[in-house]
Amino acid sequence: MSEYKRNYVNGEWVESKSGETFDVENPANPSEVVARYQSSTEDDATEAVESAAAVAAEWAATPGPERGRILRSAGVLLDDRKDELTDLLVAEEGKAYAEASGEVQRAIDIFHYFAGKAADLGGTIKCSSTLNQNLYTVKEPVGVAALITPWNYPIAIPAWKLAPALATGNTVVLKPASLAPGVALELARALEEAGLPDGVLNVVTGSGSTIGSEFIEHDAVDAVSFTGSSEVGEIVYERATKGGKRVQTELGGKNPTVVASSADPAEAATIVANGGFGTTGQSCTACSRAIVHESVYDEFVDELVDRAKSVDIGPGAEHEMGPQVSQGERDSTLKYIEIAEGEGATLVAGGGVPAGAKVESGYFVEPTVFVDVSPDMRIAQEEVFGPVVAVIEVSDFDGGLAVANDVSYGLSASIVTDDHAEANRFVDEAEAGVVKVNEKTTGLELHVPFGGFKRSSSETWREQGDAGLDFYTIEKTVYDSY
Ligand code: NAP
Questions:
Q1: What is the tens place of the pLDDT at every residue in 202-232?
Q2: Enzyme catalytic residues
Q3: Which atom of ligand 1 is nearest to the CA of 250?
Q4: Mutation test of ligand 1: which of 49, 93, 95, 148 has the most ligand atoms closer than 8 Å to its C-beta?
Q5: What is the mean pLDDT of the chain?
């Protein structure tokens, strides 16, 4: 039995003008339809944008502490529904229960964090060069923010855009990913119940290529925040900047963990396995390259293969690693496995669809390890959005660092080492927006900036923490003589 979900526009739960819907299936059991959503049209998107624009001035004038109160109340409601939200996230996206529960908690924490920020917004006061003059800055909302989000963190990413946008007084239109839109609509439900005025948030479901244009190009949209693939993000960036919008895009990755000669191979293998196979490899920060010093290479590979083979695969509700989100995503992973074999890499773990009754019908794929990978192979250069780790052997630290940087992406990078100088050189020279020492590439704190280098980001504004507020505010400088 599936639920029927509507768009949230101007404070009403409405059907699309298309009269059409689409179904979201459970990737662990595709014959089960989890929910039915509106296939929205451009007109639906226009109405959403115009609703947001109509109340922008009023919401901007609402005192920050009051905006924060609404966010905090919504956070409490989300907390009350944590189990329900986790079940929905597992059913639509497929990730393991513990991962889904952690993600829902992250969304709750984000709401509380930015609720506090809303009450604490302000500018700076400076000493004026002129007698009897106050010189200070204030931060104002940008206006209408259009948010477009991916399926892989379907509640955390909408939350980390929505909460700072609302906290700073912007009105919002949100388009969640079509593969897992349910939990984003639940954010709207919580905000509505918390007293968010009509029109301040509008959520429209349906195909990105249909709704996207209005979100990116409508005159009333002032800022576009996009997270998703580099391919789509680069188009969004070009189109939105052409229209004079403020734009932020956070995109794909090809994240390395360098395993130095001083590393304990077992510890390094655990770090790489957690980073590479966690969330079924479907994190933008997932480790997809292990760049390993020759002195620890053999032992590291044995340990990593052991970990890959011991992962408990099955429906996310009961198992350690859930399915990929869709047939298309699994096919893409399997295609990359084929390409890697064709290029001469050696498969030492996984490489296919697991066998067994519990994984018979879902989009499951085995944790996969390739060795004999050279840095120029496609498996070492292109984002593979599944649990696949390519192991590259290097003979010294400088070679490892060069390989780590020799990709077009630059999202997250880590090193496993006991050598303090090496660790610091890696921090200085790694071309990535997130750099970690003796840590997996995945996992972020919500109160520090997040964003990529190179093709992983537009490199315009960072998300999360105080930096997350900057994208949604514009500074005004006041010269007040008396
Ligand atoms: P995607 O295919 O690029 O889609 C992202 C969003 O864009 C979806 O809501 C999608 O809608 C929408 N969209 C598609 N075509 C569009 C168009 N022409 N105009 C406007 N919007 C459009 O990415 P995904 O498969 O959902 O997510 C996986 C990717 O996101 C990976 O590459 C991953 O690395 C990246 N990611 C990056 C970060 C980060 O912070 N750097 C975080 C998470 C994920 P539909 O769903 O309807 O197609």
A1: 999 999 999 999 999 999 999 999 999 999 9
A2: 284
A3: 41
A4: 148
A5: 97
Question: Are residues 424 and 465 both part of a single domain?
Answer: no
CA distances to 114, 404, 451 from 468, rounded to whole Å, are 9, 27, 10
In this structure, the answer to whether residues 31 and 117 fall within a common structural domain is yes
Q: Locate 107 and state its tokens.
A: 């969304």
* d(CA 150, ligand 1 centre) in Å: 4
* Phi/psi of residue 475, nearest 5 degrees: -95, 135
Could you report the per-residue pLDDT of 169-187, keeping only the tens digit for each? 999 999 999 999 999 999 9
**Domain with 393 in it:** 255-437
Residue identifier of the C-alpha nearest atom 11 of ligand 1: 208
In order of 145, 211, 402, the CA distances from 43 in angstroms are 18, 9, 49
CB atoms within 10 A of CB 66: 11
251/264 Cα distance (integer angstroms) = 32
Q: Could you write out the three-class secondary structure of the chain?
A: CCEECCEEECCEEECCCCCCEEEEEECCEEEEEEEEEECCCHHHHHHHHHHHHHCHHHHHHCCHHHHHHHHHHHHHHHHHCHHHHHHHHHHHHCCCHHHHHHHHHHHHHHHHHHHHHHCCCCCCEECCCCCCEEEEEEEEECCEEEEECCCCCCCHHHHHHHHHHHHCCCEEEEECCCCCCHHHHHHHHHHHHCCCCCCCEEECCCCHHHHHHHHHHCCCCCEEEEECCHHHHHHHHHHHHHCCCEEEEECCCCEEEEECCCCCHHHHHHHHHHHHHHHHHCCCCCEEEEEEECCCHHHHHHHHHHHHHCCCECCCCCCCECCCCCHHHHHHHHHHHHHHHHHCCEEEECCCCCCCHHHCCCCCCCCEEEECCCCCCHHHHCCCCCCEEEEEEECCHHHHHHHHHCCCEECEEEEECCCHHHHHHHHHHCCCCEEEECCCCCCCCCCCCECCEECCECCCCCECCCHHHHCCEEEEEEEEEC
Please give the number of the atom of ligand 1 that sits closest to the Cα of 239: 19
* Nearest in space to 416 (alpha carbons), one of 431, 405, 404, 408: 404
What's the CATH number where 397 sits? 3.40.309.10
Nearest C-alpha neighbor of 474 from the set 134, 52, 169: 169
Q: Taking the alpha carbons of 56, 175, 11, 67 in that order, is the dihedral positive or negative?
A: negative
Q: Is residue 451 part of a domain?
A: no
Do residues 241 and 337 share a domain?
no
Check pLDDT > 90 for residue 443.
yes
For residues 209 and 328, state if they share a domain. no
Domain count, the chain: 2
